Amino acid sequence: MKNNLTPLEPKADKATVRRHNLSLVLRAVHDAGEATRAGVATHVGLTRAAVSSLVEQLLEYGFVSEGGKTSSGQAGRPGTVLRVARSGPAGLGVEINIDYVAVCVVDLAGTDRVRLVEHVDNRGVQPSEVLTRAARLAARAIGSAAEQDLAPAGAHVALPGLVTGGTVRQAPNLGWRRVAVEGLFAQALLALRPAHRPLPVSSDNEANAAALAELWFGAGTEGVRSFLYLTGEIGIGGALVLKGELLRGAHGFAGEIGHMVVDPEGPRCRCGARGCLEQYAGQSALLAAAGIDADAGVQGVAELERRARKGDSAALSAIEGAGRRLGVVVSGAVNLFDPDAVMLGGVYRELMDWLAPAVDRELALRVVSGLWREDGKRLRASSSRGDAARGAAGVIVREVLADPAAYAERDRG
Amino acid sequence: MKNNLTPLEPKADKATVRRHNLSLVLRAVHDAGEATRAGVATHVGLTRAAVSSLVEQLLEYGFVSEGGKTSSGQAGRPGTVLRVARSGPAGLGVEINIDYVAVCVVDLAGTDRVRLVEHVDNRGVQPSEVLTRAARLAARAIGSAAEQDLAPAGAHVALPGLVTGGTVRQAPNLGWRRVAVEGLFAQALLALRPAHRPLPVSSDNEANAAALAELWFGAGTEGVRSFLYLTGEIGIGGALVLKGELLRGAHGFAGEIGHMVVDPEGPRCRCGARGCLEQYAGQSALLAAAGIDADAGVQGVAELERRARKGDSAALSAIEGAGRRLGVVVSGAVNLFDPDAVMLGGVYRELMDWLAPAVDRELALRVVSGLWREDGKRLRASSSRGDAARGAAGVIVREVLADPAAYAERDRG
DNA sequence: GGGATTTGTTTATTTGCGGCACAAAGTCAG
DNA sequence: CTGACTTTGTGCCGCAAATAAACAAATCCC
């Protein structure tokens, strides 16, 4: 066997064990909402003594807080209630999109504490200008967070484009190429808050962040830990979550479903190829097929929905056509990935009622496992429209939860 | 944040640390081929004392063996050479395919030690009969292995079909539906070796096993740890390896690329849908397009290669057509997965020279990341034709390497 | 009010790694 | 050939973190 099995992980020692169990206890409290030391102990398998010691450290660090006594049920001494702290470390999510910039601060428990949105058309605007605007918004959000005793442990920037290693390789809808987002954003933010320690900045594709928002915060998707997520907007974005983990691919470009092929000889796409899905089920194509101005944007989609609701046959057949093509491509993706469900977001969410039958038909016909024939509840509407900022904030929160000690010690130094 | 983040991993304690480091040291020796305690220590970051203790345990268990002294180069006391033991635990791989059954025993170091193949047409034969035949072959292999002081720690069965939870859901090429492979095979093997402890049996798709063989044993693929693997045979199988890990999907059905759509209105496929890739680039379609008997099998492919080599225009255009369609579908898969490379196996391997240009053209045109335009060495021929049995054996070996203590203690009890 | 029960802490024990010293076994320079 | 230098592998001690067991505290139940 050769050496490309896996690069060897780091060694383990006492400190590793401690870090691991610290995270385990914190996440147990997190997931339970409210818990006691004894409850956590039986849940994670550690002794009460060990949990006590770990909780003590988490209290000291300020990651959990003690409440009253559990006056609950039956016999025995009541336990002390533990909750994830609602102040202290938090996640800062930033979403830069075509016609708005949004930032969002999420606390360790996962609740939105600050949310700011600024509507601006970012198309063709200098990247540095857009990022400076985003940084201004972020700085305001950090200020509001501070008033609530929250201190972001890092910022995660999501935007519609191919991003790898902190750089946007290309973002056609924004008109960006080779932009070092992380660096520029960090710099802009630092310039606005010169006295402060620089905030670690990471970045990702917007569809990925939205999919994570669906995973972590979506309603009605409990237990679905493997799904394909689609956003229909100007472009069609996609992301893949497998067993609770986002699949980023070897370079971070995974999930680009918008340019999968419907018909190799189809209409030319702005990507240079022919017959891409976007040309059939993208927002513009959808509107045009229904006889609505292709550039009408959100109003156009609302109009389409209105017409569909009225039973307008052009609208219905436009949606049906898009759905059929969507189904063809999505069935291919399902065959490749074998997810539990497919979530449709973006404009597809509003059109779900008319879109779903066509998509479902193709899926039932083409998914070889047959799972999609047997069970009709696998195609779902995403529960919230494009919450990429929140998902991005969640990425930071999850990092903290995964290694609380690292963050606590960073804040000391 | 909700509870579907990740189920909590097990707690960590001293024993966990020990197991982890034991595996780490064993794998370090494995990867190096030859190593000394001191070398391993610097490589994995443990102290020499710790490594000494771990190696002692590995020696006791029989996972590594000591050689002579390292009479190598410069100054200082020479170290004692450590190697992965060439006797003791091993992996048993079983491949059940359409026209043959193969078994293979691989030792911890990754070398083939026993290999048996039986050519039989398994189409339409009772599953229990096929599995009994495979078990007979396996029993013989275990016997040969025993003569070399090798004792398989488990068996991994690979076959062309959708397999989940130890059961084949469907295997169209074999004509199987709902067959409990693991149980039947284990039972058949036990019946042949009544005095022995039952061997743990696991199972998987054949393309997955072949992809793992490519990852672990493939020549010329060093460093490529993320790739899409394709086998062109009667059907077209696929598998996805991402960062050295096989992607099995939520139910184990991932990688089914053969029924991705080339043309939604194309010819009807045996799966019931229309225009599947298999209808354009499957072995039968390929031969038919070149004017060769579609059922001619391996001979047919050889004939096709001969004609292509001679410059026969019908053959060349048949291959080109298949390549174009393959390129269309593979570009979609690449957009979804973002692998580092695509490996073509099965019949595509022999036809690579004529197939690759067409596939490459589509990839360069359609992969949105642009990576496939910049670098032409991403499409490769698989290095060995269908070595699924070896890959399957590797799965067992890797399990042992990942937790040697577990296997050693199992063998004691 | 006494027994049962559950919680959280305290104390002693175990174990696996880090640090250090040291013997062993070589190279190198003179 | 000898002594300085290097490197390897192994004891020995200490530390940290978990386990095990005992105990005090707080509640329920009869």
Please outline what is shown here.
With 413 residues, the first copy, chain A, is of the alpha/beta class. Chain A has 15 helices and 15 strands.
Beta-strand segment tally of chain A: 15
Number of domains of chain A: 3
Show unreliable segments of chain A.
none
Output the CATH class name of the largest domain in chain A. Answer: Alpha Beta
Compute the average pLDDT of chain A.
Answer: 93
CATH topology tier name of the largest domain in chain A: Nucleotidyltransferase, domain 5
How helical, in percent, are the residues of chain A? 40-55%
Fourth-tier CATH superfamily name of the largest domain in chain A: ATPase, nucleotide binding domain
Please describe what this structure looks like.
- The structure is a homodimer of 413-residue chains.
- Chain A is α/β, with parallel strands linked by helices.
- The first copy, chain A, has 3 domains: 14-84, Orthogonal Bundle (Arc Repressor Mutant, subunit A), CATH 1.10.10; 88-208 and 388-412, 2-Layer Sandwich (Nucleotidyltransferase, domain 5); 223-381, ATPase, nucleotide binding domain (Nucleotidyltransferase, domain 5).
- In chain A, 44% of the residues lie in helices and 21% in strands.
- Chain A is built from 15 helices and 15 strands.
- Chain A has helices at 14-32, 37-44, 48-61, 127-147, 181-192, 206-217, 278-281, 283-289, 297-310, 313-337, 347-350, 352-366, 371-374, 388-402, 404-412, and strands at 64-69, 80-84, 88-96, 100-107, 112-119, 150-159, 162-164, 167-171, 176-179, 201-205, 227-232, 236-242, 245-246, 341-346, 379-381.
- A 5-stranded mixed beta sheet of chain A has the order 5-4-3-6-10.
- In chain A, strand 3 and strand 4 form a beta hairpin.
- In chain A, helix 1 (14-32) packs across helix 3 (48-61) and helix 9 crosses helix 10.
- The longest helix of chain A is centred in the last third of the chain and has 25 residues, at 313-337.
- Chain A is globular and about 65 Å long.
- The model of chain A has no long low-confidence stretch (mean pLDDT 93).
- Chains A and B meet through helix 1, helix 6, strand 12, helix 10 and helix 14 of A and helix 1, helix 6, strand 12, helix 10 and helix 14 of B.
- The structure holds a DNA duplex (30 and 30 nucleotides).
